[in-house]
Amino acid sequence: MEVLVEKLRSLDPSERLFATSRIRRKVCEADSPPSQALVDLGVIPILLSFISPDSPEDLQYEACWALGNIGSGSTAQTQALVDHGALGKLQALLASPSANLRGTALLGLANIAGDSPPLRDLVIASGAVPPVLALLGTDTSPAILHKCIWLLSNCCRGVPSVPWGVAADILPTLIKLLHSEDPELLSYAAWSVQFLAEAHLQNVIATGIVPRMIDLVSASPNFPLAVLRFLGIVFLDGTNQQTEMLLKSSLLTSLSHFLSSPKRPEITKETCWIISNINARDSNHIQQIIDAHIMEYITILYQNTSREIQTEIVWALSNAILCGSPAQVRFVVECGAFGPLCDVLGTENVQLLLFALRTLESVLQVG
User: Fold this and answer.
1) How many other C-beta atoms can be found within 10 angstroms of the C-beta atom of residue 106?
2) Is pLDDT above 80 for 328?
3) pLDDT value at position 206?
4) Could you tell me which residues come within 8 angstroms of residue 198 by beta carbon, excluding any fewer than 6 positions away?
5) Residue 15 burial (CB count, 10 A)
6) Phi and psi at residue 75, in whole multiples of 5°?
7) Model confidence at 3, in pLDDT bands (50, 70, 90)?
8) Is residue 8 in some structural domain?
């Protein structure tokens, strides 16, 4: 490794390119890349010095690629990139006429932003978001667009969430991408919206995005899971009026279909979580779930599904019993709720166990 580092310092351009390419290959290794050893040997500032308009494009490309992979390592390694000024160098490449350089710079920034919320915030503070939004509006290369939306998604995720001012700048582009026919762009856009909704739900709803999310659920059986997760957040944290609006749309029919004819386990689990959120509201909303035959569907589904989905079903049944009217409680029990509630009495999930016991007590009180 030391020999390669010496070659990086060579006055011979071919030696520098050879060493940079070899280092890039080493940090791209799937098993135990020597990233920390390279950081300790002082490789980062040398590679960053190669990212310059005066350097050949192939040398910049290899250096940027190597740095991006170092950035996918530990937080300390990613922080080392930032400490040596990588953000400014990578951001400058976003305006490069070379698609290869733009692409590797996007990957490097995405790796830094995806490491942790503090590093995400540094990427945003460096001014990386506006040029990425511009690329999403002007670049036609699918490869570049995919890297852009991955970086943007990493800028939207994490706790604490990004400030609303940042989210507000990003959302118009995400809303446009929710109409994309490119599955990858659509999926990342949906996840980005969902990330932002976790902290800024009412502001996100105010953009008018909900009808498009509802349409996506029924538009294709392969819709992104994030769409359903977003709608679940609306049911969980939205107002009663917003919940009512969702229930009066085509969404309830779609949810019913996902449970009566389950095909994608992740969609089934998410749907059961949504039903649990609806049932936790009031008897009016529970009645709409009952009228859609969903209580029957989930008790039937319970008999032949995974433990994860069974757990979500128990939460949904419990919420219906604890928040429903006496008549609704009797109906849910008649649908077969008693069996699933008793099944979880041996669970190691203390919270679920206590909830099930409370639910069974409520059933006995109703009679």
Assistant:
1) 29
2) yes
3) 98
4) 159, 161, 233
5) 15
6) -60, -40
7) confident
8) yes
**Do both 32 and 62 map to the same domain?**
yes
**Pairwise CA distance, residues 98 & 346, whole Å:** 61
User: What band does 146 get if pLDDT is binned at 50, 70 and 90?
Assistant: very high
Predicted TM-score of the model (pTM):
0.92
What does R_g of the chain's alpha carbons equal in angstroms?
Answer: 26
Q: For residue 162, give the amino acid letter.
A: V
How many domains would you assign to the chain? 3
282 and 221: one domain? no
171 Cβ neighbours under 8 A, 6+ residues apart: 193, 196, 204, 207, 209
State the Cα torsion 297-299-305-310 to the nearest 10°. Answer: 120
Last residue within a domain, chosen from 248, 278, 309: 248
Domain that holds residue 100: 1-115
Last residue of a domain, one of 66, 99, 115: 115
Q: Are residues 346 and 299 in the same domain?
A: yes
> Can you point out the beta strands (E) in the chain?
none
